[in-house]
Amino acid sequence: MIIVDSALKQRDIEGRPIKVGMIGAGFMAQGIAVQIELFTPGMELAVISNRTLSKAINVFQSAQRENIEQVDTLESLNQCIHSGKKAVTNNPFLLCEAEGLDAIIEVTGAVELGCQIALSAIENRKHIIMMNAETDGTVGPILKVYADQKGVVFTNADGDQPGVTLNLYRFVKQIGLKPVLCGNIKGLHDPYRNPTTQEGFAKKWKQNPAMVTSFADGSKISFEQAITANATGMRVAKRGMHGPTVEMGKHVRDCLDEYPLSDMLEGPGIVDYIVGASPGPGVFVLGTMENPIQKHYLNLYKVGEGPLYCFYNPYHLCHFEVPITVARAVLFHDAAIAPEAHLVDVVATAKTDLSAGTTLDGIGHYMTYGLCENSDTSLKENLLPLGLAEGCILKHDIPKDQVLTYDDVILPKDRVVDRLRKEQTVFFHK
Ligand SMILES: NC(=O)c1ccc[n+]([C@@H]2O[C@H](COP(=O)([O-])OP(=O)(O)OC[C@H]3O[C@@H](n4cnc5c(N)ncnc54)[C@H](O)[C@@H]3O)[C@@H](O)[C@H]2O)c1
Ligand SMILES: N[C@@H](CCO)C(=O)O
Q1: Taking every annotated instance into account, which residue ranges of this chain make up the domain SAF (predicted)?
Q2: Among 184, 205, 260, 271, which one is least packed by beta carbons within 10 Å?
């Protein structure tokens, strides 16, 4: 978004930086802090909230910031924001209520907390950048309804696949093609991975083992593609998507016959993924063009003869682009990617044989993985969203690879996420 850099430069020249608060101090948070503080003129990260304060301080220190104040009241946080002193707190709701913050970045990956933060930020009329795909892919549509009511932006982030995909999707649409498939290019997909199998990878890259497991076992890509579907009006062709595996390194533009043409051309288009293709880990959008004159030009410009034209972005740079999303929201009221409807869900599926009485663990752990399913089917079949599975108690044995239903579990009590799911169903489906 080239316009954003000029607008940020102007804020910098005027001495009126955008002020941001961030909730979470993990792997992504560190990258975001460095990116805002060292590479984004016109924006300041004013405060970080985390359960463990030392991690929030470490994140500021990674961004070469010292002299950080620990705060636990709204008044002291407001003073820090006003004076330009960096602050940390273990109370995330202070950030939502604070004066002088333009936007909140939510980067925990925790679903229940993500719901509470989003609601509080919106209630306090702050734009919310929801890097937490797990929450967005579960209750994003209804959170967007709340945000619209308060006149603030609810958005996922540039940099992660949904944001990169939507930028490409908007480009493809803008030049006159009809997008018919939004896809992710993955290097690995194995639903049975768990934090033990992914321990080495996590250690090598200094990441959380459960988080990287969610990338390998298909849960994260399912959240990403649900978010993309809910923003574009697309659907999945079948439960779990096609997700073909191709010869390692084969270019994605040579893989178009992996997807049945009718799935793309009949209906609103589909979200899907491919494993092994290049350029990875990028994204691609397939579009169609009817106009014979423009088809002639597309062929001349080496995009092919159709009927499918393949556009791609060779990378997704996760945290690098998050400040761009903040600026788009604050300065232009433009969401990188926001839900317009509730069309696709991520449903919980047994990773292994599970016994009655078991309390389900979290996303990217040992017990469940996610599959995309169209929401009309997930509602009709009473399927359990993956974002709700943690803490549920199984009423009976569930065999490996069976999709769970609400009838299989006892839900934890008094969760905001359950209330939001009910509201979402009523709002979009009744
Ligand atoms: N790691 C990646 O490569 C990557 C890439 C793109 C998007 N994301 C998304 O970014 C988010 C964060 O990922 P990460 O890799 O930084 O995770 P992480 O595990 O490294 O960090 C998560 C942070 O959130 C805090 N947190 C988690 N659960 C919490 C809870 N219940 N209450 C309070 N605080 C809690 C943790 O203390 C930690 O500071 C996730 O939504 C993930 O899907 C991650
Ligand atoms: N979705 C990423 C992880 C971080 O977005 C992946 O491709 O595995």
Answers
A1: 345-410
A2: 205
